[in-house]
Amino acid sequence: MIALVVLVTLIGLPVYVFPVVADSPRKVDVIMVLGGRQDGRENYAISLAEKGLAPVVLVSDPYLRPDPYMEAICDVPHQVKVVCFNPDPRTTRGEARFLRDQAAQNHWTSAMVVTFTPHLTRADYIVSRCFTGDLVMAEYKTDLTLPYWAYMYAYQTVGFVRAVAQSGC
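Above: the chain sequence. Below: its structure as tokens.
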């Protein structure tokens, strides 16, 4: 049993802990922030845009109202255009579809997606099925406890299985 846990941990390291899909942030047409832990990734993405990396930031807001955290982001002015949206469905797939549709409407050919480390590889898999342009996956690093890492291994693995089983965008 211990050997199985060690094997799963080692296999998961390049997928969840040190994702090989992580890119350095660079100039793109739009930055999209995936919903999640409300851990600061939204402000990180807005700060990247304000440094000149994109004129628009799409912020996923899959939370139920009222949500003071999201209101503090979505209801205040920023130096760049910030568009908060409710994905349908309220999953990474819904967020990827929103990016696809907005990219078509706005003629965007490049996008940066910001999410936290354990979600990065799965998000890349899902978003790249919907968005065919130049995709930059930006890692938002946050401190996670060991039990939360264990939970993320399981959660992200189940999510990968579901994503692989689904066809198309």
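The longest helix spans residues 146-165.
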